[in-house]
Amino acid sequence: MGRVNVMRTISVKAPAKINLTLDVLGKRPDGYHEVEMVMTTVDLADRLELTILESDEIRIQSEHAYVPNDHRNLAYRAAELLRERFNIQQGVEIVLDKQIPVAAGLAGGSSDAAATLRGMNELFSLNLSLEELAELGAEIGSDVSFCVIGGTAIARGRGEQLEMIPSPPPCYVVLGKPKIGVSTADVYRAVRMEEVHHPDTDAMVEAIRQKDFHGICEHLGNSLESVTLKLHPEVKQIKETMRHCGAEGVLMSGSGPTVFALIEHEQKAHRIYNGLKGFCPEVFVVRILGKRH
Ligand code: ATP
Question: Residue 126 is inside which H or E element, if any?
Fold first, then answer.
């Protein structure tokens, strides 16, 4: 009898996200904060290789010192959720090539979970739509839904309610991460609602629709920035260096500590990269990824 040749391994990319805006609207009875954020993916990505196992285990392999390889890993949680929900008998091995800095405000863990959902959907022929996968993703973490779909979106609720919008015009993004890692929960705990600065989300969305690069730079805003700046003054130094080197728009992403600069021309992007390289341990020049998955 002939054997059916089924796919056993799949390779998936998990891009990082940046927040062009992040507005904290208030605290909810369930303990989460109500947010409104404009998020977009950039072409700095982890790579995951998923392989079907005959045994029923979920195995995570990663060389990264700060990335757990058990149920604390969001990719593990994604695999576990799909196995339970769809009664999958086989296990999966996830080899994680980590390129996105950890605990950085770039949603690396959430993107790994999202890539695991997309990858297992194909590997196990689950035939779920991206929207269905995004809904499942919300059970793992607030940013996972956006990472499932990618592109550019306004995220509301605790981050899981998405409205897709066109992508910003092509530009360079320089990312600079200081040596520290930041816990998102700690930053949200330190938020004082009466002191929150609210970005103008509508103006940002309009600038994006108009492909108005300078308007986008002008309306960058993050309610969490001043909170993280107080806890970690290093963030300010990176912002100032980027500005000093001529960046048009500069903002901290998510709960930080990564700061990004938007730049129209490649030469200037490299000037900023060189300006940061001396004292900032992790610096990347990337581009905005226009397309959704
Ligand atoms: P966000 O922007 O969504 O707040 P982040 O970029 O600040 O995310 P992550 O890199 O996702 O933060 O990691 C936060 C913590 O989650 C890490 O300290 C790590 O212990 C844990 N973690 C779980 N799974 C992963 C993963 N696949 N990759 C990296 N960290 C992970």
Answer: none
> Which ranges constitute the DSSP H helices of the chain?
74-85, 108-123, 130-137, 144-149, 184-189, 201-209, 213-218, 225-231, 234-244, 266-277
Compute the distance between CA of residue 119 and CA of residue 184 in angstroms, rounded to an integer: 27
Q: From the CB of 71, is ligand 1 less than 6 Å away? A: no
Residue with the smallest CA separation from ligand 1 atom 14 is: 103
Average pLDDT estimate for 262-272: 96
Task: Using the 3D structure, point to which of 106, 140, 164 is the last residue of a domain.
Answer: 164
Q: What is the pLDDT of residue 1?
A: 47
Known catalytic residues?
A: 17, 143
Would you say 186 and 230 are in contact if contact means Cβ atoms under 8 Å apart?
no
Asked if residue 6 has pLDDT above 70, the reply is no
Same domain, 178 and 224: yes
Beta-bridged to residue 61, according to DSSP, are 95
Contacts of 87 (CB under 8 A, 6+ apart): none
Determine, yes or no, domain membership for 3.
no
**Over residues 157-180, mean pLDDT:** 96
Residues 118 and 209 in one domain: no
Domain total of the chain:
2
Query: Does the annotation place 167 within a ligand binding site?
Result: no
CATH number of the domain residue 138 falls in: 3.30.230.10
236/95 same-domain check: no
Query: Are residue 153 and residue 183 in the same domain, yes or no?
Result: no
User: What mean pLDDT, rounded, does the chain reach?
Assistant: 95
Residue-wise pLDDT tens digits, 241-257:
999 999 999 999 999 99
Say if 1 falls within a structural domain: no
Interval between CA 87 and ligand 1 midpoint (Å): 27
